[in-house]
Automatic annotation (TrEMBL):
The chain crosses the membrane at residues 430-450. InterPro entries: BphY/WalK/GraS-like (IPR050351), HATPase_C_sf (IPR036890), HATPase_dom (IPR003594), His_kinase_dom (IPR005467), HisK_dim/P_dom (IPR003661), HisK_dim/P_sf (IPR036097), TPR-like_helical_dom_sf (IPR011990). This is histidine kinase. CDD domains: HisKA. Keywords: ATP-binding, Kinase, Membrane, Nucleotide-binding, Transferase, Transmembrane, Transmembrane helix, Two-component regulatory system. It catalyses: ATP + protein L-histidine = ADP + protein N-phospho-L-histidine. It comes from the Bacteria. It comes from Dyadobacter fermentans. One of its GO terms (molecular function) is kinase activity. The lineage of its organism: Bacteria, Pseudomonadati, Bacteroidota, Cytophagia, Cytophagales.
Length: 694
């Protein structure tokens, strides 16, 4: 009886083991099928559907605690949905893959779905969730030793900093780290997808250099990616589009055309609507326009237009309309040029501020050439306002990127310090272990240990103090340089642009002016250019002396001379709006101020007065002796500007004004002890007063 029970139990156990083995064999088979599809990944629709199907069947047979297999199947399904551009389904699967990796204690495997979730959340407009995924990935990357996982994490952090934070310097660092880490894998593997992934990383480095307008560097990395071409249609189309952009920037029509043909041959093998089909035709049209091959440019433009209308996305149609405007402008068909430029205005303002800035410049020129000076002036005002705003944004972005880079370096320094301290602590533990065998030496060893720790702590404290001081000086110097560049660009942009517009008018439409007008205009341009050159030289010499930090140089300054120089610099602006300046300062009036700061303050206030004054307006400049000191007053007719509005501009709450010029006036006046106030003595008039201390 006992033997029968024992035999029966043995049979049941063998069947259980056999069943478990069969279960593992089924899971392993599905996993190998998914890995096989990914290893020969081509991006074709049928391979994506097969990947989703095999992953789904694997999940059906996987148990709750089959963590490794469940992770692999969720990743496979998510990858299929991702390349099908079904981002909602892909997000769900990547989130489940991450949850399984965490629950199963697979920290290294959690990196991949985190990297995927950064991109997915960004595409879906979920900025907060993308930031959270990026922070988790950044914190988890350092302890990982697997080179492929590390390279993938670097790549995803590069995409995050490029696409979402616009920190191109930091993004480039991450992409280069990814390429360096991935190269040994690509050189030794026979798996197609790994080689394709390496090529994509090289292409992302090239994309950063294209954004930075460095096509030679971009070509260097695209050429390194050439051995991976022909392995994936998606990768090939991506690479050909970047090659075309490089050669467009290099004005190399022959090479651009060769890659144009390769791109369209590759795209014809798929059913997707590739944005590269539009951008490549626009690039070829721009090259043809540069060579004045107008019929060829029109052919490429029509192709781009047909593809953009098929896609029906404004982000592409506005680019097509913009190049159409350039085409008709080259033909001097200003009516059609204005039509297409205006059609592209909404899209460029929405998707590409720098391209919108160039569009406003083109609209200003075309309106002037078409004989609409008032419309040209309106677009020019928009151009100046947006240019100031972009300057502020770029300075802020550069400072933010420098701060982010500094924080990363500071974090790495803390990690290095911690590793040093840990290494030091390990060696101390060994010495203490040996000291346990030698009781007589315990006291001596403890004394040595204490002294070494104190010496190390003192050294670290000293290094940290030096690092804090250097970082403080660097931050102050960077802020000073940013302010100097803001002053120079803001003070010189308007007069330079006005000279440029008048020169264009004189060159392109000489028939509009008689000999007397030409002579008068030439004299004014020569006078204004000379004044502009002298001012530019003074600003550059001053900026050179101020590169480390702003230092005031208080000395006697003649207000009569200072105001006359400022008026002379904006003479063409005054002429364009027929504004009269009444400078009632007839004799020398001496005040104590920094001459360069004072020139900058007066120039900015006069430029604002010109902007606010109507055509044919009047600007008054006078100087009076008040109880509080000498007062320089600048008044103008036109829209009122109050002290409350001035305070709003300085606080950054008045979104109708860029405010850069007034912020400079406020900062420089406070540094030199000049009081600034705005009054409105009459309706539709403004008077700004500068009070100099006695």
């Amino acid at each position: 009886m006992k033997l029968s029970i024992l035999f029966f139990t043995l049979i049941i156990s063998l069947r259980a083991y056999a069943g478990e083995d069969e279960h593992i064999r089924q899971l392993e088979g599905k996993k190998l099928k998914c890995e096989g599809i990914l290893a020969t990944f081509s991006g074709k629709p049928e391979s994506l559907e097969l990947l989703i199907k095999e992953g789904g069947e694997g999940l059906k047979i996987a148990g709750e605690k089959d963590y490794e297999y469940r992770y692999a199947f969720h990743q496979a399904i998510a990858t299929g949905y991702y390349y099908k551009q079904d981002f909602k389904s892909a997000k769900e699967q990547f989130e489940q893959a991450y949850a399984v990796a965490v629950k199963g204690g697979m920290a290294d495997k959690s990196l991949k779905p985190l990297g995927n979730l950064i991109s997915i959340n960004y595409y879906m407009g979920l900025t907060k969730e993308a930031d959270e995924a990026a922070e988790k990935l950044k914190n988890a990357i350092e302890p990982i030793s697997d080179p492929k996982l590390k390279a993938d994490a670097y790549y995803n952090l590069g995409l995050y900093n490029q696409q979402q934070k616009f920190y191109y310097g930091i993004a480039l660092d991450y992409f280069l780290k990814s390429v360096e880490t991935y190269k040994p894998i690509a050189d030794t593997t026979k798996i197609v997808k790994l080689k394709v992934d390496y090529g994509l990383r090289l292409m992302m480095v090239a994309e950063i250099y294209l954004y930075l307008k460095q096509p030679e560097k971009a070509l260097q990395y695209l050429n390194l990616a050439k051995p991976t071409l022909g392995l994936s249609l998606i990768s090939d189309i991506n690479a050909y589009g970047k090659f075309i952009k490089c050669y467009e920037l290099l004005k190399n029509k022959t090479e651009a055309l060769a890659y144009y043909k390769l791109l369209h041959e590759a795209a014809a093998k798929t059913s997707g609507n590739w944005s590269q089909l539009i951008s490549s035709n626009l690039a070829m049209a721009s090259l043809a326009l540069g060579d004045k091959q107008y019929s060829l440019a029109k052919m490429y433009l029509d192709k781009a237009d047909a593809q953009a209308k098929k896609d029906n996305k404004e982000i592409m149609t506005f680019s097509v309309n913009l190049v159409y405007g350039d085409y008709y402008k080259s033909l001097k068909d200003y009516k059609n040029a204005l039509k297409y430029y205006k059609m592209s205005e909404h899209g460029s303002a929405l998707y590409n501020k720098e391209q919108y800035l160039e569009l406003l410049k083109s609209l200003t020129t075309v309106e002037m050439l078409a004989g609409s000076p008032s419309d040209a002036a309106a677009y020019h005002e928009k151009y100046v306002s947006l240019s100031d705003s972009l300057t502020d944004s770029k300075v802020s972005l550069n400072l933010a990127e420098m701060e982010a880079r500094f924080q990363n370096e500071e974090k790495q320094l803390r990690i290095d310090n911690q590793n040093t301290e840990l290494s030091y602590a390990r060696s101390q533990r060994l010495w203490l272990g040996a000291g346990l065998l030698l009781i007589s030496l315990v006291a001596i060893l403890l004394t040595i240990n204490y002294r070494n720790k104190k010496r190390t702590a003192d050294l670290l404290d000293k290094k940290n103090e030096e690092l804090t001081r250097v970082n403080s000086e660097l931050e102050e110097a960077n802020q000073t340089k940013a302010k100097l560049f803001g002053i120079i660009s803001h003070d010189l942009r308007s007069p330079i642009n006005q000279v440029y517009q008048f020169l264009q008018l004189q060159q392109r439409n000489p028939q509009l002016l008689n000999d007397a007008q030409k002579g008068e205009l030439s004299n004014k341009i020569q006078s204004a250019t000379g004044s502009l050159l002298a001012t530019m030289e003074e600003l550059l010499l001053w900026s050179k002396s101020q590169m480390s930090q702003f230092k005031t140089d208080i000395q006697p300054v003649d207000l009569k001379d200072a105001t006359e120089q400022a008026v002379q610099l904006i003479e063409l602006n005054l002429e364009a709006k027929r504004i009269t300046v009444n400078n009632e300062i007839s004799t020398a009036v001496w005040v104590k101020a920094d001459p360069n700061y004072l020139q900058t303050i007066i120039r900015n206030l006069l430029q604002n007065a010109v902007k606010s004054s109507p055509d044919g307006g009047v600007i008054d400049i006078r100087c009076v002796q008040a109880a509080t000191g000498i007062v320089l007053a600048i008044g103008n007719t036109g829209s009122e500007f109050t002290s409350d509005q001035y305070a709003q501009v300085l606080a950054g709450t008045n979104h109708g004004l860029s405010g850069l010029g007034l912020k400079l006036v406020d900062e420089l006046s406070r540094k030199t002890g000049i009081a600034v106030s705005f009054e409105n003595p009459e309706r539709d008039s403004t008077r700004v007063s500068l009070t100099f201390a006695s």
